[in-house]
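Data card: per-record layout.
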Amino acid sequence: MLDAFSRAVVSADASTAPIGDLSALKAFVASGNRRLDAVNAIASNASCMVSDAIAGMICENQGLIQAGGNCYPNRRMAACLRDGEIVLRYVSYALLAGDASVLDDRCLNGLKETYAALGVPATSTVRAVQIMKAQAAAHIQDDPSEARAGARLRKMGSPVVNDRCASLVAEASSYFDRVISALG
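The structure for this 184-residue chain is written out next.
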C-alpha cells in the first residue's frame, strides 16, 4: 500500500530525479484533519451504510431474497453484507492514504471474475455500491437528509460543506467509481 508520500518517492526514484511536485504533498498534509474526519465519518457509520445499501438493493430487486436468489438463504445474505463491509473498508483505506493502490491490489483485483464464477449479479452489486457512494458523500459532508431521517436524524457536528470538503467527496466518489467499473 502506498500513500501519497510513498507514491511520490517511488515515482521520483524510478525516474532518478528529485521529487518534482511538492505542492501536491503539501495539499495532502493540509487536508490531513479533514481526511481523518471523512474516514471517521465513513468508518463510524459503516454498519448502517452497508445494511442500508443492501436493503436498498433488495428493495429494488425482491428476487434476491426469494428461494434461488443470491441473498437466499441467510448465509448468502451474510456474505453479501460481509462483502459490502470489505468494499467500504478498502475505500476508507484508499481515502486515508490518498491513493487507490490498496483498493486495486487487495479488493478489486479479480473481483469481477470471482463474482462471475459465484453467480453474483453485477447489476445488484453495482447498485449497492452506488448507494454506499451517496451515503459516504452525505456523511463526509455531515449532511444527512432530514426528509428521510425524521426524528432519527443524527449529525456528527457542524456542517463542513465547503470547497475543501468537496474535494474529499470527489476523491471518495472516485474510489467508489473504481469499484463500480471493476464490477461492470
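Known properties of this structure: The longest helix spans residues 74-97. Residues 33-144+156-183 form a domain with the Globin-like fold (CATH 1.10.490.20).

See the next section for split statistics.
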